[in-house]
Amino acid sequence: MMKWLMAGAAALLASSCTALTPAPLEDDAAPFDAAAKPGPGDRMSSGRTLGVRSAVVAPHAAAATAHPLATQTALDVMKAGGNAMDAAIAANAMLGLVEPTANGIGGDLFAIVWDPQTKQLYGYNGSGRSAMGATLADMQAKADKYMDGKEIPPFGTAPVTVPGTVDAWYALHEKFGSRPMLANLEPAIRYARDGAPIPEVISYYWSFGPKRFEPAHESGMLEEYDNARKTYFSPQPREGSLFTNPDLADTLERIGQKGRDEFYKGETARTMDAYFKRIGGPLRYEDFATHTGEFVEPVCVTYRADYKVCELPPATQGITALQMLKMLEKFDLKAMGYGSADSLMAQIEAKRIAFADRAHYFADPKFSRIQEGAFLKANRLDRQAAAIKLDKAMDRVPNFPFGDVEASITPEAAAAADAKLKQGDTTYLTVTDSDGMMVSLIQSNYRGMGSGLVADGLGFMFQDRGQLFSLDPNHPNVFEPGKRPFHTIIPAFAFKKNKPSCQTRALPIDQACPFEPWLSFGLMGGGMQPQGHVQIILNLVDFDMGLQEAGDAARWEHVGGCEPTNAFSGDPCEADKGVVELESGIPPAARAELERRGQTVKCCAANAGGYQAIMRDFDSGAWIAATEMRKDGVADGY
C-alpha cells in the first residue's frame, strides 16, 4: 500500500509541475538553460495557474491597499465600530505617510461608493483647480524657459493645483462616515510620530526623488527644495527602515481636531499662502478658501448583458474604459482565449480608438464642449468597433467627430505627451464592511512624488497635476485660471445579475433580474488605468479567472498616440501607431503574431499598474479580496 501511495504521489507531483511551470523569463529561453535566471517556485492551486497567491475570503469586512499597515488600519477601524468609509479614510491617511511616492494630502481624490442604506451608487470628484492668479501666458513662458515650449514644467510652482483630498475626506465622511474624523486619522498621526515601516517597492520608488528634484532645483524650475529634502530625504528611507514625519502628524492632528476648514481656511491655509508668496508661486489663500469638490453621477454601461461597469465622468479618463468594453462586446473574446493574438489585437485597437476621443475632448466638464453621454451612443460605438480589424493594425485611427467639434493631433506631440501620462504615481484602495458598504477610492500626487514643494512645517508635498493641462488655446483642456486639469486617476465599480437569486424568486433572468453590487476595483498607473480596468473585467467575465488570478495575469499596455495635453492642430490623430508593451507572461508566439499584424511590440516592460479589488460572493455573502502582486500591499479581512 505504501509503495502504491508513493508512486501515486510522484505521478501527481510530476503532472502538477508540468501544469504550473512558469513561462520563461527571457523571450527566447530554451527549455533548459544553465545561464537563465532562476524563476519562482511552483504553486499548487485548483486549476488557477496564473495566480501567485490565493484571494482572501472574509465573512464580515475586507480591505485591500498598497501597504500592509494601511490594510491593517482599515480593518482595525471597522473592528472598533467604524464603517467602510471611516476605514477607507484612515487607510488613505496612512498611505499618505508610508507611500508618499504615490499620494498624500497635497493631492487629489476620486471615489465611488455603494451605499446599502439608500441602495445608490455615488461618485465624488475631489480634484483641485489652477490658481486664479495664473494665466496661460505665464504657463507658456515657464514652458518656453524649461521645457522647450512643449509642456508645463513637472516641478516647482507651475504645475501645482489646489489639493482636493482633505475636502473629499470630509464630504465623504459627512455623507457616509460614522466615527469622529480625529479617530480615523489617529493611526496615521501615531505612526508619523513613532515611525512607519517602509517596504521594498515603495523604498525603490522613493529612491528616485532626489534624482528628479535636485536637478530641477539647480535649474531654477523647482524654486525651493530644502523643505522636501528635510521631510523626505534626510536620511533616504530604505527597505526595512522606520520613517517619521512629525510635521505631517501635527497637520493631520489639526485637521482632525478643527475640521475641513482648517486646511482650506485656517492655520494650514495661511501657511500655504505664505509659502507660495515666499517662493514666487501663484497660489493664494483665496484659491484654497474657495475650493469645493462635488458629488457626481457615475457613468455605467452593461457588458455581456449580465454585468454593468461604472466609472466617473470627465475630466477623468474613466469613460475610455467603458468605450473599450462596448467595442469589445462585439468580439467573441472567450473563444479567442486569454493572451491570444486575436484577443490582444481587438483590445489594443479598441484602446487606440477610445484614447483618440480622450485626447480630443476630455477636459473639465465646465469647459468642454462634449457631454459624456455622447461618447457612449450605440451607433457611434458600432462604427468605432467596425473599424477594428484583427488581421492588421490601423495605420491611423479614423476620426469620429461630434458634429462641428473635430480635432487632430500631431504624432510628434503625441509621443512626447504620452511619456508624461504614463508615469502617474497613484494609490488605489478598496474597503467593504458588514453592512454591505463598498468604497472604491483612488488618490494621487500625480508624478514623481509631486511637485517637489513642501510648505514650511506641514509635512506633505504638493501635487504636480497641473502639468496635464494643454498649452494650446484651442484645446478644451487648455490651461485657464480656476480650472481643473484632465485627470488620469479613476476608481471603478461593477454590478452583476444574481441569477440564482432571480431563479429562486421566479424572475425572468434576461430582463427583470436586477443588477446587484458585485465588484469594487481599480488599477493604478497613469494612462494604464483604463486599459487595466478593461483587462480585469475581461479576465473575470470572458476568461473565467478568479479575482486574484485576474490581477496576477500578464498585462499589456499600449503607449503613444493621442493625449489630452497635446496641441489641438496638425495631422490626423495617431499617424504614429505607438508601441504595445507586454509583460513576460504573454506567449512569445502571440508577441510575434502581433508584430506580423503591424503592431510595434516591446517586451517586457509594461507599466502594469497596481490592482486592488473586493468582490461579493452572492452564494455565501462573503467578501473575496485580492491585491497587486507587483506592489507591497495585502488584502485581508475578518
UniProtKB/TrEMBL annotation:
SUPFAM superfamilies: N-terminal nucleophile aminohydrolases (Ntn hydrolases). InterPro entries: GGT-like_enzyme (IPR052896), GGT_lsub (IPR043138), GGT_ssub_C (IPR043137), Ntn_hydrolases_N (IPR029055). Keywords: Signal. It comes from the Bacteria. Pfam families: G_glu_transpept. Residues 1-19 form the signal peptide. PANTHER family: GAMMA-GLUTAMYLTRANSPEPTIDASE (AFU_ORTHOLOGUE AFUA_4G13580) (PTHR43881). This is Gamma-glutamyltransferase.
